């Protein structure tokens, strides 16, 4: 007896970015086909050298090759090329449970959200390497301080999106920082979002993580700084202004004290440096105020583009 499609009337696309996932991709495709029988399974191969694309095609997936290296480039291509009402994104390494995909979609529909993130239960205890676990904690705290408490696991690669989200998301990053950019996009436009906690599996024998603790960690840090500058310039430049202003006051304090006591300025170069630092602090403040107005205009434009997409029909 054929399995009924619980989301009949909605087009669902499972989009899987892949790079050298030959040991797992066939099982991942089969599992998602079983969990979502009415969905189209897309595998976006990112220059794999181990036959991932051929294996995925034989498993029944629609395979697209993206030549620009990096997960961000793949996600940008996925959202541009695939047209669906609902998108489910997962990694091709088998660490995410495909059987939970209907739950992701049902949460998306029931809560009328634009993105649902599957937070990874136990990821801090088992993130492949201790450096990954520590970085995960640090970046999630940093994100909360910079952009708000919408998400508790900004690096989860298992997510469901509406067409509204996919077609309004600019996707400027190129690598593993793409999940951070997705989260900021949702937070900035104040989209309705949700999280559900799921188990996070181990990679099977022969499958290896593509994430570099230090290289990708640095890129993620730079992406957070760039997004803070673009979305909250008053806070970004205000922080720089505060640092330069504090340095200026520290240098100027003993000079001012000496001047008040003796009427002399014995360390003229230090006084000039202190004055220069204070002028730079004022410049940063001015930049922050001006760019804050520009950023508000950009948010309005993004919001209009987002609202131009039809909302998901409630089932």
From TrEMBL:
Signal peptide extent: none
Keyword Transmembrane helix: yes
Pfam families xrefs: Glycos_transf_2
Transmembrane segments: 234-260, 272-295
InterPro entries, per database record: Glyco_trans_2-like (IPR001173), Glycosyltransferase_2 (IPR050256), Nucleotide-diphossugar_trans (IPR029044)
Protein's UniProt keywords contain Cell membrane: no
Assigned EC number: 2.4.-.-
Entry keyword set: Glycosyltransferase, Membrane, Transferase, Transmembrane, Transmembrane helix
One Gene Ontology molecular-function label: glycosyltransferase activity
Domain Glycosyltransferase 2-like: 14-166
Name the UniProt record assigns to this protein: Glycosyltransferase
Organism: Methyloraptor flagellatus
């Amino acid at each position: 007896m054929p399995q009924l499609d619980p989301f009949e009337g909605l087009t669902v696309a499972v989009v899987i970015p892949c790079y050298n996932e030959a040991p797992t991709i066939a099982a991942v495709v089969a599992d998602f086909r079983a969990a979502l029988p009415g969905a189209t399974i897309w595998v976006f191969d990112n220059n794999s050298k181990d036959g991932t694309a051929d294996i995925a095609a034989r498993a029944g997936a629609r395979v697209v090759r993206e030549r620009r290296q990096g997960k961000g480039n793949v996600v940008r291509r996925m959202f541009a090329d695939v047209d669906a009402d609902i998108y489910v994104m997962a990694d091709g390494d088998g660490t995410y449970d495909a059987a939970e995909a209907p739950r992701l979609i049902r949460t998306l529909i029931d809560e009328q959200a634009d993105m649902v993130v599957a937070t990874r239960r136990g990821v801090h205890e088992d993130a492949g390497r201790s450096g990954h676990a520590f970085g995960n904690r640090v970046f999630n705290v940093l994100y909360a301080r910079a952009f708000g408490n919408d998400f508790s696991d900004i690096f989860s690669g298992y997510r469901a999106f509406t067409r509204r989200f996919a077609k309004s998301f600019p996707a400027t990053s190129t690598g593993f920082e793409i999940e951070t950019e997705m989260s900021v996009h949702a937070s900035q436009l104040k989209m309705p979002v949700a999280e559900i906690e799921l188990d996070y599996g181990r990679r099977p024998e022969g499958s290896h993580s593509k994430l570099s603790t230090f290289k990708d960690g640095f890129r993620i840090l730079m992406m957070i700084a760039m997004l803070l500058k673009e979305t909250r310039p008053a806070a970004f430049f205000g922080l720089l202004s505060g640092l330069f202003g504090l340095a200026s006051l520290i240098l100027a304090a003993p000079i001012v004290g000496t001047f008040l006591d003796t009427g002399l300025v014995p360390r003229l170069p230090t006084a000039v440096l202190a004055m220069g630092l204070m002028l730079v602090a004022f410049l940063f403040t001015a930049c922050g105020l001006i760019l804050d107005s520009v950023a508000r205009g950009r948010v309005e434009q993004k919001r209009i583009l987002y609202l131009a997409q039809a909302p998901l029909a409630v089932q």
